[in-house]
Each structure stands twice: as structure tokens, then as C-alpha cells.
């Protein structure tokens, strides 16, 4: 069956079935629409996320394979466990969302540009103000040296991006998220697409259909609002 790219209208928040996404490029589902809070929430509830470069139209994706982890399965290597015991880095939640997303938007050494455009930053800032998007920060004294941000959908946390300016800082943020989210009843963390960095932390690939079933099952979980209150995080050692 031939698959076609769907063009979204700005006055209709609905998305096509993720299983109708293109095979090449993998997961491209739709184009257009907007980045309103309502549309973004609708997208994440259906395993869909935006990903496009500055100057491009909005592109919506749901790839055939999804990088996911149950938070209790996060892998902490012996060297990382030693680092956690000895480090003077500290962690927090929702102390500096805007700073984290701006840091994540900086191009990596191997990149000429970033997909986290000003439109994305503004859109996720609005999600954060609505209590839907959250950040984990890593600090060295008063300097932000690492962190991550993402969107919470009930018992699922959909990670968007992470950064580090200090060795192991992004790993520390991810481990902190896993432990904290599990403590409040979180069930699944979505990392979108697998990387060697994520795989080293225990993240595995799942088929899109399996992830959608998890998302459908767990997005109605009632995660206490206390989970996302501004607070310091203490890692289990």
C-alpha cells in the first residue's frame, strides 16, 4: 500500500494513524499545523513528536522503532556508581527549564546547526508553563553543567534532548530522572531514537506498535503533582 505524507491544517488538531508514517524517511507522518500546547499534547499522547530545522515547515514523526526504558532498568556501571558516590555535582527538577532547553539547542561539535529552533523553544516553554514539560538540571556549585528536558504524559515521560558541559553530567541527569520518576509511579521513559550514549544507560529499542500500546496503557496513570515541583534530587547510591 502506498503511503502519503499528510498535510495538517491549523484549525484541526487531529493526526493520522502513526502506523501510516512513511518508511523513507522512517517515521515521517505529517507536515504543517502549528506548535500549540493542545496540538503538542495531542501528538505526545499518540507517540508523535515534532522534529525539523530552522526555516523548514513543521515535520511530525513516529519512527518504526522507539528507544524506551523502564526507569528501574537504568544501567549504572561500576565506574558511574563510583562517580555518583564521589561527585560534588548536584541535581534539581524544574529550577531552570529555559536555561536547559537553550543549552540543548546549542549545536554539538559534530553539528553545523540544531533542530531546537526558537519556535520549538517558545512552544516547549508554553508547555512548561502549563505543567506538561519538565527539566532535570545538573549543577557544579551555581553553574548549570548538564540536564535534560521532556514532556510528561501520565506514567510516561517523553525525553526530548539532553546536554552536558561536565563529564558524566547528562548521564547523571538521566539516572536522576529514572530514579525520581519511578519513585512517583512512572512506568516508561521514551527517548525517541536510540544512540550509543542511551544504550549504555540501558535504553532499548521497541517496535512502534509496542510503544503505542504502552503509551495507551500508562498515559492515564495519576502521577502526583509533587513529582514535578521545584526540588533538589538525591540519587540512590
Structural description of this entry:
By secondary structure, the chain is an alpha+beta fold. The protein has 2 domains: 6-63, Leucyl/phenylalanyl-tRNA-protein transferase, N-terminal domain (Alpha-Beta Plaits, 2-Layer Sandwich); 67-233, Aminopeptidase. Helix content is 28%, strand content 26%. The protein has 7 helices and 12 strands. It has helices spanning 37-44, 78-86, 97-104, 118-129, 169-183, 196-199, 208-218, and strands spanning 6-8, 28-32, 49-50, 59-61, 65-69, 90-93, 133-140, 143-153, 156-164, 188-192, 204-207, 231-233. The strands form 2 sheets. The chain has an 8-stranded mixed beta sheet, with helices on both faces. A 4-stranded mixed beta sheet has the order 1-2-4-3, with helices on one face. The longest helix has 15 residues, at 169-183. The protein is globular, with a radius of gyration of 17 Å. The termini are far apart. 38% of the residues are buried. The model has no long low-confidence stretch (mean pLDDT 94).
Strand tally: 12
| Gyration radius, rounded | 17 Å
Sketch the topology as an H/E string, one letter per element: EEHEEEHEHHEEEHEHEHE
Q: Output mean pLDDT.
A: 94
Strand order of the main beta sheet, please? 11-5-10-9-8-7-6-12
Write down the overall geometry. Answer: globular
* Major β-sheet profile: 8 strands, mixed
* CATH overall fold name of the largest domain: Aminopeptidase
Unreliable runs: none
**Helical percentage:** 25-40%
Name of the CATH superfamily of the largest domain: Leucyl/phenylalanyl-tRNA-protein transferase, C-terminal domain
Return the CATH class of the largest domain. Answer: Alpha Beta
Distance between the termini: 52 Å
The amount of beta strand, in percent, is: 25-35%
Per CATH, which architecture of the largest domain? 3-Layer(aba) Sandwich
